Amino acid sequence: MSASDSRTSSGSPSQAEATSTLPAFDGADSPAEPQMGTGKGSAAKGASRSPRKTTAGATPVVEKERRGPRRVRLTLARLDPFSVMKLSFLAAIAIGIATVVAVVLLWNLVEAIGLWGQIDQLGRDLNGGKPLPFMEFFSFSKMTSYGTIVAVVNVVIITALGTLLAFLYNLVAALLGGLKMTFTDE
Questions:
Q1: Most buried residue among 41, 84, 85, 91 by CB atoms closer than 10 A?
Q2: Which domain-ending residue is among 68, 99, 116?
Q3: What is the mean pLDDT of the chain?
Q4: Calpha distance 25→30 (Å, rounded)
Q5: How many domains does the chain have?
Q6: pLDDT at residue 13 above 70?
Q7: Does 75 map to a domain?
């Protein structure tokens, strides 16, 4: 609605007069109403207001001061378990890849400093010159296989736990109302 309504005025208003701003928004003359965008007061006031739109023939109104960021207070009331499952699966895949890479790098580091050889020599000294039987479990291929098995098990566990936690959050949010968050558009 414009400040000068053509139904109540006696003459035909021009295009610039028909799209002028409302008197309540012209200035900060009203002490009862706080300034919009100053960051003080309720987040509900002005949170859903959009900037003024001008028509094609009207000249844009220059604002006297720049508004601050809008703040919106929202509640996270429900998590979709399927989307949480997809996200936790992708995160578990990334963690699994990192696990296998870490096992390979650590094995190479231990091999580079000669720790496997020293452990084997210590075992031979303690066992009368015979190698320790469990040293064959520390070969590169077996350690990589162990890391891969742990990664696959972790993918299953992390995906299942993520989905289960989404269901639990939905139950708790139904009882208590969910998480309250405040967003700004800076």
A1: 84
A2: 68
A3: 77
A4: 10
A5: 2
A6: no
A7: no
Domain hosting residue 133, numbered range: 81-180
Q: Do both 62 and 85 map to the same domain? A: no
pLDDT level of residue 26 (50, 70, 90 thresholds) = very low
**What predicted TM-score, i.e. pTM, was given to this entire model?**
0.56
Rounded Cα distance, 99 and 75, in Å? 36
The residue that leads in pLDDT, 21 or 156, is: 156
Over residues 72-89, the mean pLDDT reads 94
Distance (Å, whole) CA 61 – CA 3: 14
Using DSSP, state whether 177 is helix, strand or coil. coil
The torsion region of residue 177 among left (phi > 0), alpha (psi -120 to 50) and beta comes to left
Same domain, 64 and 94: no
Alpha helices (H) in the chain, listed in sequence order: 15-18, 81-112, 115-126, 140-176
Q: d(Cα 71, Cα 45) in Å, to the nearest integer?
A: 9
Q: Which residues pair with 72 in a beta bridge?
A: 183
* Phi and psi torsions of 182, nearest 5°: -120, 125
Max Cα separation, the chain? 116
Asked if residue 139 and residue 100 are part of one domain, the reply reads yes
